[in-house]
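Entry 14. Structure prediction run on the chain below.
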Amino acid sequence: MDGPGRAYRHVGPPELWNGGGPGGRLLRTPAEFATWVGERTAAELAEPFTFVVDLAGPLRLAPRRSEHVACAGGALVLSAGEIGFRREGGGWAAEEISNQSTGYCPDVASWPAVASALDRIGVSRPGGFTHEVVFRHCPGCERHNIVREGHFVCVFCDGDLPGHWNVDDGAP
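Output returned:
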């Protein structure tokens, strides 16, 4: 499945997921977000958080240095990355959002899932990722790459990288 409905599975090192813990904090409603953000310190809110959007659509948040696979509880996700919040008027806004997750390597086309999750909890947002990361899998050396400045060449073997997302073509 291509585009915003794609499910991403963890493609990072298996040792990053030890199978324990409930994952990130599940936020389904504006009230749940208000409780979660009210429990954060100013220092915590000064840094971005690790996020995933689970298959049912809600946002899960964990501290920034958490592994995405742990935040997701080992499950498939609709998107993953980092997100920072700021006060805006009487509410909250997502100030910076990226799909930076080397564990799931989500395509930039996963943005609609993030937008929907934020809309559901009443957090205003930009129109897309504020920092897009383009991931590709090298068909030559079989390693994952981050494409920089539109240069679709593998940093490990100098092989050509495809123009379309291909990190886990076997994902559901």
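Residues 111-120 form the longest helix (10 residues).
Filed with the rest of this week's runs.
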